[in-house]
Amino acid sequence: MMPQQPISAGSHAIIFDLKALTQFDDTRPKATILAETGAAQVVLLAMRAGQAVQDVETPSQIIVQCLRGRSTLRIADSVHALRAGLVGLVEANTPHAFVASTDCVLLLTLTPSPEHRPAHGLLADVAPLVVREE
Description:
By secondary structure, the protein is mainly β. It has one domain (25-131): Sandwich (Jelly Rolls). It has one helix and twelve strands.
């Protein structure tokens, strides 16, 4: 099923209904690229309990907001618990992983947008809902 489009797309603002856009996949984490602007890429990530996104590294800084549920953010030997309402910051070029402790929803903001998505992996075949040039 294709994700819904933004509920409002004016010339100066776009409003996304994250509840409506959140989709879980029982076989793997489900990512939806909400926006690709060059300055930032915004990704909605839904994971069932036990699912993980392993061995991720990007040239972008990542701001991760836990919107629902609980997850862990692993960086090297350290594990950081995320729960709804917490925000974490992952520096660029830092290998990390997300592991869902419960069903969870994370909002990731990558700054600047990665210039290229890997040919494989979580975002390989995901088209952004909104693309804006700087």
